[in-house]
UniProtKB/TrEMBL annotation:
Organism listed in the record: Prosthecodimorpha hirschii
Active site: 67, 215
EC number: 5.1.1.7
Organism ancestry: Bacteria, Pseudomonadati, Pseudomonadota, Alphaproteobacteria, Hyphomicrobiales
Gene Ontology molecular function, alphabetical: diaminopimelate epimerase activity
Protein name stated in the entry: Diaminopimelate epimerase
Pathway as given in its UniProt record: Amino-acid biosynthesis; L-lysine biosynthesis via DAP pathway; DL-2,6-diaminopimelate from LL-2,6-diaminopimelate: step 1/1
Amino acid sequence: MNGLGNDFLVFDARRDPVRLTADEILRLADRKTGIGFDQMITLEPSGAGADAFMRIHNADSSEVSACGNATRCVGWLLMQEKDSAAATIETRAGLLYASDAGEPELITVDMGEPKFDWRDIPLAEEFHDTRAIELQIGPIDAPILHSPAVVNMGNPHAIFWVDDVEAYDLAKLGPMLEHHPIFPERANISLAQVTGPDSLILKVWERGAGLTRACGTGACAAAVAAARTRRTGRRVRVTLPGGDLVITWRESDNHVMMTGPVETDFTGTIDRDTLAVTLDPPASVRGAAE
Ligand SMILES: N[C@@H](CCC[C@H](N)C(=O)O)C(=O)O
């Protein structure tokens, strides 16, 4: 599946457990010799009364707690299955609620509350004001890239404000910033350009996945950081390379709502021993044969 081109391999492990080794995840993640994905999602039974538990692994095999675009995809799958307009998803970051946004394959997810305390990001040293932290970055000759906002949206994000996202080579800067010693659990790195009181352009270097076409939690983190510093209001359209997400940071309960599309690319089966993939025929072909 994919949300704005941020792509996922989704396993349904609710009846039969799927436990892959790090090496197997890396093999499946390889875009040349495997299937290729930004994140691998494993649906498991929920222990908290939700419709499913969603386990998330990055393409580098690290297990993480949050993925906004995948939450929309999983929410949509569960809603289809239940024939319902809402679904509850358990994640390591807590329970998330997905609902039908009123248009086909457009889903809203309540991503919960953002965290700003330096211990929650987490950062390696104390910062009182996480709206802009001073970073010592050796070789980068761009002062603007020294004071990111940091936000935890179930996962760590650093947002660097720039005048033009295209003026920086994020593929080069991303790995260095992701592994900066200030981020003990590494971080997702965004370049954000404010284009109006209710709009942002965003590019994200994702922890454990690299440059992606979209990052849902990144869009939430950037929208919150922008509103927190009065760069925008609390409702913004975030334009990513793969398309747009609408993010609203609700005043009433401090929750961040994200609305965007979902897509199923193909379905199939993976052999447990060989990891060989058998694709299901496309629905149109199945329909013709019936
Ligand atoms: N694609 C994501 C975020 C996935 C996890 C991230 N790379 C991390 O390591 O925290 C999204 O849509 O939020």
